[in-house]
Amino acid sequence: MKIAFAALAGLAAVIGASGAAHAAAPFYLHDGDRVVMYGDSITDQRLYTLYTEEFVTTRFPKLKIDWINAGWSGDRVIGGGGGTADVRVQRDVLAYKPTVVTIMLGMNDGFYKAFDQRAYDMYTTGYGHIVDTIKAGDPGVRFTFIQPSPYDDVTRPVTFDGGYNSVLLRFSDYIKDLGAKEKQTVTDFNTPMAAMLTKAKTTDTALAQRIIPDRVHPGPGGHFVMAEALLKTWNAPGVVSSVTIDAGKKSVEHSENTTVAKLAVTDTIAWDQTDNALPMPLDLRDPTTALAINSSDFVSALNQQTLMVSGAPAAKYELKIDDKSVGSFTKEQLASGVNLATLTTPMSTQALRVAGLAKSHSDIQNRRWRSVQVPMADEKDADLRKPTDDLITALNTREASIVASMRAMAQPTPHHFTLTPAP
User: Fold this and answer.
1) Which of 41, 55, 59, 241 is the most exposed place for a label (fewest CB within 10 A)?
2) Measured distance CA(26)–CA(43) in Å, rounded
3) pTM of this prediction?
């Protein structure tokens, strides 16, 4: 038995070391990266792409990363309304000189019917061609291949034996194998989305059907779950900040990704705190969005801004940040920990402002690309070309200004915390 226990202890040490190594894995994106997100209408919705940008901007405010959405509704691996895949790759991907390219295609490639070998062969050949073309144009690019998001066969009955999502899962297997072959990152959108839909269905079947209202295009809640899957693949940290205070000892016992100063403990517990990041801005006022997020592990996995206070003598306290009330908590709640990321705080308000600027950035970029650049790409008339070029320059300048404001808004700000005994 001693040998068995020793072996188990050794195994536990290995597992613990492995977990620690995984937790310490560096974030996938680097300062100066330019990310092009290529895909069909689900990418063209500009939501999971936007939420990913918001997260990275608020969690890593010192990183300067450029984001380009290159989704086009109806696209397949051969292309679509925006041109052939060869045209799209040259004009909408390589022209931006990306360092990172994400690709999500497949929803339209199965033709919304039972598995067809010819469609599968066209998909695998076409997807591989896109990857090879990008590699030829930019050999150093890093890829994230995204397995197709699900067709909702979870909250509604299937329309044929096996359902359409089973076809997308066959496509997903190819993406997984391609990632291993190419030694590139692979993200699974299908599995976490299906799990979320399954849980949401047990909570509220009718509302769960609105998460992907047409069975193809997710609403905001679904896009948050897809963004979570992508961010997890990129080793995104779950902690915004973490502070543990022992009021009895009048000491800061632990702090992570933040600086705590000027702790003073009398009847009131007060301190200054400057976090290195902001919480992910989540607007849960829409019940469908709230159902999707609450049916996932988004908050527990990626949005932890923890305050823990032990040894507080009073039974209940009011928490204020910068003299604004955040909420009232019992000493037991404070001792077990409060996740500030789920509350309305000066930090979450700041993060929402970042999100607003990110949305403006996405809008102006899309307007320039789809309304000016693409329609006028083949224009040879100099009289028409000149005002077009001037307009593109003006839009570029405006976009750069918005991005600068967004990055400035994301920078850390000091805050004053007080816990005052409450009746």
Assistant:
1) 41
2) 26
3) 0.93
- Sort strands 34-39 and 66-71 into parallel, antiparallel or unpaired: parallel
Residues with Cβ within 8 Å of residue 290, at least 6 apart in sequence = 221, 284
- Tens digit of pLDDT for each residue in 64-118? 999 999 999 999 999 999 999 999 999 999 999 999 999 999 999 999 999 999 9
Q: Where are the beta strands (DSSP E) in 247-290?
A: 251-256, 258-265, 269-275
101 bridge partner residues: 36, 143
Residue among 345, 352, 300, 307 nearest 327 (CA): 345
In terms of Cα–Cα distance, which of 361, 355, 344 is closest to 280? 355
For residue 228, the 8-state DSSP code is H
Amino acid code (one letter) for 348: S
- 100 touches 36 (CB < 8 A): yes
- Distance, CA of 130 to CA of 134 (rounded, Å): 6
Runs of H (alpha helix) within 60-116: 85-88
181: tokens are 């072959």
